[in-house]
Amino acid sequence: MARKIADCRKYPSEINCSLTLIGEEEEVLRAAVEHAVSVHGHEDTPQLRNQIHELLEDEARTE
User: Fold this and answer.
1) Looking at the chain, which terminus has fewer C-beta neighbours within 10 angstroms, N or C?
2) E strand residue ranges, the chain
3) H or E segment at 53?
């Protein structure tokens, strides 16, 4: 199973966030939601979770 990436650098923010999360899909989604709420001030809603889930990308394999 491919690991997933959530990269804040791809999305504009007032704080120019540079956080990148890589791991299994569910753990990246959970951490990305927590980050969006605690750092970026978003509300933890099903819509936020769906939006973040849709933005996750597969990690490029270097094998």
Assistant:
1) C
2) 4-7, 20-23, 57-58
3) helix 46-55
